[in-house]
Amino acid sequence: xxxxxxxxxxxxxxxxxxxxxxxxxxxxxxxxxxxxxxxxxxxxxxxxxxxxxxxxxxxxxxxxxxxxxxxxxxxxxxxxxxxxxxxxxxxxxxxxxxxxxxxxxxxxxxxxxxxxxxxxxxxxxxxxxxxxxxxxxxxxxxxxxxxxxxxxxxxxxxxxxxxxxxxxxxxxxxxxxxxxxxxxxxxxxxxxxxxxxxxxxxxxxxxxxxxxxxxxxxxxxxxxxxxxxxxxxxxxxxxxxxxxxxxxxxxxxxxxxxxxxxxxxxxxxxxxxxxxxxxxxxxxxxxxxxxxxxxxxxxxxxxxxxxxxxxxxxxxxxxxxxxxxxxxxxxxxxxxxxxxxxxxxxxxxxxxxxxxxxxxxxxxxxxxxxxxxxxxxxx
Length: 379
Ligand SMILES: *Cc1c(COP(=O)(O)O)cnc(C)c1O
Hints:
alpha/beta; Aspartate Aminotransferase, domain 2; 2 domains; 5-stranded mixed β-sheet; 14 helices; 12 strands; 37% helix; binds pyridoxal-5'-phosphate
């Protein structure tokens, strides 16, 4: 079955009691049991809910995985993954992961005895060097937020398998339409469903997909014990969004390529980070493990003042955090998504004060380019 067909049909059956072609939103906390221990597979909605189950099956199919789990947000899903660990364990993560991942690691999980090192994973050798006797996980984001660095997935798998480390990929930017980490042997795929999967900037959610049954069982246990589950309404919204994921991603990809090419030749833009550009240092690697380059671009204007001026001057592009919606969003990582990363660390990972991030929407690309053109003319 092709990707678009799976997006629309995998895990989804018309409702047996009414024929409703759309999955019902099962707004219920509990389920009537026929007799003690005799029920239809559902007992309490923190444990499982039929609408959530459909989404979990659907995303598992899209990521070529066996099982999926849905959480209240991407961060809730990430927390569940780190709850697989014990105090004293060590994690190696990509150096410019989502700002919230860094905050969770350093300002929350650190106090529970989990030790994190953030390394440049564009070279797998840097992961190898960072491995300690207590290392248990390697957490990679590729492409990374916001500098669009790529990590070699087969390389990570080889390293992790040899040392029995759990490998995790945050696949939020690429989506399963462009990249399937499990196909390379990655253990856990993570999504902020808030972004491209939902695609309409109107819900929050997190999704995890795995092939490993033992890890899935433990994560399901954490999901029901901690309770950071996705609500039935959000699960339904996400299912609705995923139906058009393929057409949206194809358009995001086309539009972003054009916007990146425009920015790349503009004399006021110092540098453009987009894996689809031949000038991107890892363009070839991106081509090898992805089926396109996605809708995220970052570019450097050289200073905070110039970035501010651009962000004040855009009209169609909306100044906002988040990404992956149908509308074009523009943001300033250093003061927005990466504000909790210390200045020195920001500098080290390339999140300069002049860096602007753009989530290219699916509007007419001529309008997006025209807006950026007029805003650049003002700086
Ligand atoms: C947004 C995001 C997250 C966090 O997801 P929420 O749904 O906001 O909790 C994690 N990783 C990446 C790459 C993101 O963009």
